[in-house]
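Researcher: Checking consistency across runs. Here is DUF2922 domain-containing protein again:
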Amino acid sequence: MGHKLVMRFTTEEDGKYFSMSIDNIKIDEITGQPSVTEAEVNTLMDLIVQKKIFATSYGAIVGKKDAKVVSTTSQEFTIA
């Protein structure tokens, strides 16, 4: 199972958002579930907004919109 953090930010252009995802986020070694905390995500997003390190086609990132952890599973098939 794969896990990624998806964050959305508001931009200078009204109604436009910038999305960023981070693959292979940290997981709890015992449960195998994501162990990223809400506080860690908020701190990361605040830093991204504050440092203005990303430029978007909709202007600068000016705020946080939302964030979520997305988990995916896959199943392989034998093809004969």
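Researcher: Does this match what you'd expect to see?
Model: One thing to look at in this run: The radius of gyration is 16 Å.
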